[in-house]
Amino acid sequence: MSAQDALRLLLESDACRDQRDMKGCQISAENALSCYRGLLDAKGEAGAWRRILAARLGQNQVTPAAARELVMKELQRMGDSPGPKAILLLSLGEVDLLLGQVDKALAAGLEARSLFAALNDLEMEAYTCHAVLVHAYLKLARPKDAMESAQQAVSLAQQAQCKTEEAKSWQALGATRLAMGSDDAIAAMERALVLYKELGRKHSEAGLLTMLADSECHAGKGDAALARGLEALELARELQVSGYETPALDVVFRIACAMPQEAQKRAQDFLRLAQTSSEVTGTALMMGVHLGLQNPNAAFQLGQTLAKKLDERGDKDNLARMLTYVAALTSDLEEALAAAQRSLSIFQTSGDLSGQGMAKKVLDGVYGQRQQCSRAPNRKLAKQALARFGAALKDQDIAAFQSAMKCVDGYMKILLPEEIQATVDVAMAENPEAIKEFMRKAGCDGKNTAPAENQGVQEDAAVAYASARSSGMNHGPRFRTMCSSYRKGDDQAMAILQRDQEELLDDAWKDCEINDSLLEAAVFTALNQLPSKKASQLLVDVAESGATALFHPTEMARDS
């Protein structure tokens, strides 16, 4: 066989991988490997070997830890020849990302990129940038480096005139901008979408449409998000690949969860879609309708009924996903724990990393409510994120700080208030005034910031309590009930308060909606948020009871 035949087999392998056909990917790559060995082409051999390993990982034929050992042995066998070494280092970086060994992944990726640059292999250099370096930098809370790598990936792919890598690079750039809260994220993803459509890469298009729907949902663009989600779902069905239909269904479901008013407005669209869908898809969409209509119990009952049917049929993949929905919807913590644990177990057995992430997030919430944060599956990641937050705060690095804040926000359910407080205290120890000023500039203290119309200005609880402590007012654990506070205009303040868990279990407090700790927090909110003597409406949401009390028109004031 010729070099052209070997290249054709590699392209077939890549096409199978895009279509989630890992068996086909492995067969084509194994044939290419035999061909390259016959041609004595070490670089081509390494490229085919890397695809075989990826296919085996995708079929759960090998664990990430075992895959790493295989890569290390292959590196030793291949020696120091730059071409094969660069490809195997790239594979090592990808595996290390799967293992969560981010520092090692970054080191391998940087070395691989350096070798590709020396070989003037622009296409593979671009791939290394968007597939390894961008992800590693984001996980390490280094958003500036991630952004630079994504931009370089776009430039390298354009220089190589490789539209496939250019599309993937634009997609990575969009994801990076999204992680940094940039308004340009969707524009970058749309550039990628145009290229995917031009190339006819429908599988990549389906995945990107799902990402766009999720991004627009977070941006508050309800109509656009729903349209993208439904388009992704329709395309995934056309492709008949569950690996694309399931994420598309997830994002449509999340739109209903996160934007109930939008779901209510679109209830008829969901109903029509549900009637023409499979039982699993239709039920999930009906659950979305019920959430939009603010009928969570009906949504839960639907999910629970279908989960039993799926269990009887032995449909493990859909069962795991439905169990995750059920766990998220039920108010019974024991039932939620059992459902989420079983869901995670099924996803781990199947090797579905996306599903594992979803189940772990639900488990985090359950363990957080059970006051068992140490048992949460993402607890280690949460503490690492908090450490990066503290380091960025101490170093007064705005980009890193804002990125770390977003990361920490995702783990708030499993971080203890005293851990957050201690982190802020350490960062403020040397120069508290400079840190306070930095936090104001970073947008953490809204007191001197004019709020946008109809939007409140938020202040993090840890920042507020740290500021009070530096002024001589220290709050003990029972009185540290404020989760976050908001100011709208100059005369309205709102606080979200969480009652002390011991009080909730104490019969003396069970029927008491407002007690001394909550009242103190309400007063503290007004004094802390309002800039001058103003009459105030103070809205307090008590998370555990769901009760909301409006203080009006009590006169709340502070000395200017």
Task: Provide the fold topology.
Layout: H1 3-18, H2 22-39, H3 42-58, H4 64-78, H5 82-99, H6 102-118, H7 122-139, H8 143-159, H9 163-179, H10 185-199, H11 202-218, H12 222-239, H13 242-258, H14 260-265, H15 267-275, H16 279-292, H17 296-313, H18 316-329, H19 333-350, H20 353-369, H21 379-395, H22 398-409, H23 417-428, H24 432-441, E1 457-460, H25 461-470, E2 482-488, E3 492-497, H26 501-505, H27 516-529, E4 537-542, E5 548-551
Parallel strand pairs: 3-4
Antiparallel strand pairs: 1-2, 2-3, 4-5
Helix pairs in contact: 1-2, 1-3, 2-3, 3-5, 4-5, 5-6, 5-7, 6-7, 7-8, 7-9, 8-9, 9-10, 10-11, 11-12, 11-13, 12-13, 13-16, 15-16, 16-17, 17-18, 18-19, 18-20, 19-20, 21-22, 21-23, 23-25
Structural summary, described in words:
- The chain is mainly alpha-helical and 560 residues long.
- The chain contains 27 helices and five strands.
- It has a five-stranded mixed sheet with strand order 1-2-3-4-5.
- The longest helix has 18 residues, at 22-39.
- The chain is globular and about 80 Å long.
Summarize this structure as a short list of keywords or feature phrases.
globular; mainly alpha; 27 helices; 5-stranded mixed beta sheet; 560 residues; disordered C terminus
